[in-house]
Write the structure tokens for this entry.
Amino acid sequence: MTTLWKKSIDGTLYEVRQAGHSRRLYTNGVFHSQFSASNPITGSVWDLLLLPAFFQPQERLKRILVLGVGGGTVIRQLLHFFEPQQIIGIEICRHHIDIARRYFGVTDRSVQLIKADAIQWVNDFQGEKFDLVIEDIFSGENNDPERVIAPNQKWINQLLNLTTRQGMVVMNHARDKDFKTSAALSSVTLQKRIKCAYQLTTPTCDNIVAAYSKTPLTRKTLTDNLRKSPFTNTELSQCRLRYALKKINLK
């Protein structure tokens, strides 16, 4: 692995490394992002954040919000497989934004990167709603990723409020115990708003990604859409995509 760039800024060490065809971002040793232009599928957690978008017809994904940009992996993936009119990325670290643009190619004109606290930004937002919201905000305390905000009823409700009538919220959880604390699994109020929910995992990491949709979803739609690209068609031997999909039973 080759180090392309490394700098300590205000006590935080930022590193961009090259591993084969993949470019990686580490912040204080925490693995934040990975992307390869030759194959947008990473074989890790970022694929799980991307996959719920394949539940939807491509023309429905016009406005997408990404909370927690890092190096911009999921934004690059979305741009490869879809044609959104706008992607807004909220990132608290201006150095991550600079790195995303300089080293990870997040420069498409449809993408707007905003330096802001994602929680405060959500609290203040009053604009046009989004077709897809991807929430991936973590801190790197003790070299271990931790959610910045608990997946409680108030937070998930706020995220759902950001979406259109047919919208979807996708949330990342670093481990099983974090996912099991999600209010979406127990809150009657939330479950009245969520018409369908799935959890996604991959054997390469412990993360659990949950997708909460305001409209019904089908596994067939997902798999049919994934077959359209050699990068996501798991029937092909060269496909790097590895995932398990499980429906979340809502009360």
